[in-house]
Amino acid sequence: MSHSAFANSVRLAFDQGTLTLSGVSESLLKRLWEPNIWVSDPRSKGWRTDAIHYGEVAKRFSLHLAASWIDDVADWKPVVFPRQNLHSLRRDQADAVNAWFATRRGVVVMPTGTGKTEVALHVIARLGGSVLVVSPVRDLMYQWHDRILAATGIDAGIIGDGVHRVSPISVTTYDSASIHMPRIGNRFQLVVFDECHHLPGSVRQDAARMSAAPFRLGLTATPQRRDGMEVLLDELIGPRVYTQAIESARGKTLAHYDIVRMSVHLSEEERERYKMLGRTVANFIAERRVDDPGYDWQTLCRDSGSDPKARAAMLAFHAKRSIEDRATDKLRLIEDLFRLHAGEPVIVFCGSNAMARDVSLRFLVPCLLSHCRKRERKEILAGFREGRYPVIVANRVLDEGVDLPEVNVAIVVGGGSGTRQALQRLGRVLRKNRFGRACFYEIVTSGTRDEIRSRDRRRSDAFRKK
């Protein structure tokens, strides 16, 4: 086919998170794409597809149409860094950077504490183009802003938290990216998805699908999701290009560590109430299954909004879970561990806000919860770093992302059954520091579902004794 026949009439443009294409016949599209990614667009009398396909579309048009097409998509420019104050990379970090540059799309999996942020900063500096860094929460967004400023001298734009300042180097959150990508999706050559296991959520996927960035980097310590949707990362970002297991970094990049599982028992009063609540839930479900053999937990949750009996069963279930989380003996054992590690910084991870408050009030230590204001959070972490607070307690807010001071003791007194949360919490004590060997304690309520959750979340090789 003669390229001159197109007379530069083939035009590719960006529009509201999609690519629009004009001047191309359906027969040519079918030859270039199988299966066809394009849909007919009556409004533009052309074709349309998600912006995520830009890199592949540009490659195929450049190959088959040479100069006979017009690219009106890319609105990014080279970036000059005032300075490059980057740390030297370790061998494993350099391997991760080189593995990513081999394809310029893909996910880097490295344990918490091994320097994923440094890997990304080297990628950003070496690429030298417009970059958008996407984080799961605002605290991490500002953390990235500070790291970029320190490493490159660039005051990155901020998109989110009531600020909308778009710059060639910008930071945002997944939620803000999903909202604003229809307007800014062609402004960045590279998108860095931090903690990228969050991306496959039904709405957050839009942050990737509506971006035209041909280069994509995903960072995570724990790519697995309970819904199995991590398989979408290959499509949204690219294949896994580098993986480092905790075990391979143990004693090298990361500290040596001990994992100690300790059991406590319910008091007689707690045990009787626990059994009574369990019977309430079991009897309700058994009663419903007489008429509906398929009656399950999801149905109970749905019915609890309108059915008083279902709501009573739901409340009984949560009260039962609260007894597991807040067993009195857990507080006694926590006190023993505080004495054992006097003078060392300690983090207590809880399974509920209520238990976090119990620990905070019992031992008069600061409590970090998701609703804490940014100023309060910064003050508590600064006090922990300076030694004014020897202990901090949290529910989920410290599970991932937030840079923590040196700490080598973690006490887990509750949580979900997923390995991801467990690995994230373990990673909080594995950075090498002056305290030496790390200790990871898990306190479990014997004879309850707390034991089952503990067993499930310890399936990773990282929890095997060495």
UniProtKB/TrEMBL annotation:
What are the recorded GO MF terms, alphabetically? ATP binding; DNA binding; helicase activity; hydrolase activity
Xref: Pfam families: Helicase_C, ResIII
Q: Which UniProt keywords apply?
A: ATP-binding, Helicase, Hydrolase, Nucleotide-binding
Q: Does the keyword Cell division apply?
A: no
Q: May I ask which residue range the UniProt record assigns to the signal sequence?
A: none
The record places domain Helicase C-terminal at: 332-466
Q: Does the keyword ATP-binding apply?
A: yes
Q: Where is the Helicase ATP-binding domain?
A: 97-241
Protein's name according to its UniProt entry: UvrABC system protein B
> Whose protein is this, by species?
Novipirellula artificiosorum
